[in-house]
Task: inverse folding
DNA sequence: ACTCCACTGGAAATGAAGGCAG
DNA sequence: CTGCCTTCATTTCCAGTGGAGT
């Protein structure tokens, strides 16, 4: 606690000076283009049909009837979560004015590892919304987590809305193939609780997914018979819709802070990719940030061009920051090998430049963990983590051969975020990484010796 | 087609953390 | 406090895989 205060370093300008200096921004209301903002209904574009359907499905809740569960399907950034969240928020407001106690919570399957964790998160979110005392996560069976959840809904709510975002990603422990994925159990237990009438009150499930097929085929037969959602499809936005979406959020910026061609350009760039509205909005915001940093009054097309890189980088940085410490160490080791090993890497025929061979990266992992007194895990774990980071597209993993009867090896390539940026990001985040970098010459020679011996 | 070897991937085992009952 | 239980991360064991040169 006390340590946090001790970190102040000397600054050229006093804090007061800096805080009171002229504030230059192109943003009038930045909230409008923050990722998680739930916007007014009139800012929702090109999704009239979906909006109507979701509204009609939720509506019975306001009259004491049980709404259908919903499955919102479509690629990412097509407004699924936005619409679910917006309608839920509105419904809660209306409910409150009619003395119907409602609440909604949202969990994203992407960030959850297991059934237990997901249920805990839902329970925890309700506890927070309702100002209840938090109950602990570990040391308690999953089924008692469910019970706590049902108790809360029963006791404090007339109706709950649970949004399960990107649920197909919540596969849980994939060790046993015969076991259904985690989301199957979650859906089964939640929808069963309603049907069986465990509670006086009830809730509805809104599931969103990019790949409805893998979701529905992952359900086992029990779940299948209890979970029968109404499906609503969402398609990619086209450039026109993206343009309109962005125009509706134009007032995030000051009147003349946007060049005329900025919004069409952002829309075109985003439509070229995936038709992902989130990406479009991130891009617009980042372009604004860049203009601000340059202390310019207006955002230009060229800022968007620059922002493109930044946004893609941010996605990777976001992943590395949310990954466990051991995985960060592994990544750091691989990045260091890549960064300091260039000369050696270029020398060999079977090594790609800008890569790091797994074996050497692992040796460095061991070296770093020794050096910084970090707990050391097995090679197997190291390899698994790196594979995992490959599936997150943080790095690219290639399998290569070493030549005659020398076997194959894996090499890690840094595409989306350069090894240098990766090392910097991590060194920024944790002192121990920065420590390792201090002795640059030593580190360099360790890397190169190991590459030579490889 | 074969060989070598580092990696892969599944399954089972182990160990740690932490709440709960007695 | 002790023994027990659940979940989760990691380790251990083991049977493949596959790149590339012969």
Result:
């Amino acid at each position: 606690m006390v340590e946090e205060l001790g970190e102040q370093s000397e600054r050229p300008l006093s804090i007061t000076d800096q805080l009171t200096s002229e504030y230059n921004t192109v943003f009038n209301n930045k909230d409008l283009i923050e990722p998680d903002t739930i916007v007014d209904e009139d800012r929702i574009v090109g999704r009239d049909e979906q909006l109507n359907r979701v509204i009609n499905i939720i509506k019975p809740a306001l009259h004491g009837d049980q709404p259908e569960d919903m499955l919102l399907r479509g690629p990412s950034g097509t407004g699924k979560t936005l619409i679910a969240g917006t309608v839920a928020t509105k419904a809660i407001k209306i409910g409150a004015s009619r003395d119907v106690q409602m609440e909604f919570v949202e969990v994203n399957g992407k960030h959850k590892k297991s059934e237990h964790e997901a249920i805990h998160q839902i329970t925890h979110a309700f506890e927070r919304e309702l100002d209840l005392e938090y109950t602990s996560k570990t040391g308690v069976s999953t089924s008692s987590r469910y019970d706590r959840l049902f108790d809360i809904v029963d006791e404090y709510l007339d109706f709950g809305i649970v949004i399960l975002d990107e649920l197909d990603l919540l596969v849980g422990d994939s060790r046993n193939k015969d076991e259904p994925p985690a989301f199957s159990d979650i859906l089964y237990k939640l929808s069963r609780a309603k049907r069986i009438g465990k509670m006086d009150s009830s809730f509805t499930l809104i599931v969103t997914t990019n790949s409805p097929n893998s979701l529905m085929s992952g359900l086992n037969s029990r779940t299948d018979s209890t979970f029968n959602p109404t499906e609503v499809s969402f398609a990619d936005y086209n450039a026109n819709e993206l343009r309109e979406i962005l125009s509706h959020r134009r007032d995030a910026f000051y009147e003349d802070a946007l060049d005329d061609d900025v919004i069409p350009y952002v829309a075109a760039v985003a439509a070229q990719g995936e038709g992902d509205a989130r990406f479009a909005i991130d891009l617009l915001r980042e372009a604004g940030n860049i203009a601000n940093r340059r202390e310019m009054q207006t955002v230009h097309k060229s800022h968007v061009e620059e922002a493109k890189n930044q946004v893609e980088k941010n996605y990777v940085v976001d992943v590395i920051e949310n990954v466990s410490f051991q995985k960060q160490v592994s990544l750091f080791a691989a990045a260091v090998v890549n960064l300091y090993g260039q000369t050696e890497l270029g020398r060999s025929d079977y090594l790609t430049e800008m890569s790091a061979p797994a074996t050497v990266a692992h040796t460095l992992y061991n070296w770093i963990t020794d050096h910084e007194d970090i707990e050391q895990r097995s090679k197997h774990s190291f390899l698994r983590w790196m594979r995992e980071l490959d599936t997150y597209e943080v790095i690219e993993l290639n399998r290569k051969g070493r030549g005659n009867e020398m076997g194959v090896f894996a090499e890690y390539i840094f595409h989306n975020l350069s090894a240098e940026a990766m090392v910097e990001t991590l060194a920024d985040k944790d002192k121990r990484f920065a420590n390792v970098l201090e002795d640059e010459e030593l580190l360099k020679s360790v890397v190169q010796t190991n590459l030579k011996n490889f």
About this structure: Residues 1-9 of chain A have pLDDT under 50 and may be disordered. The beta strands of chain A are 70-73, 102-108, 159-165, 202-209, 230-233, 355-357, 396-401, 408-413. The first strand of chain A starts at residue 70 and ends at 73.
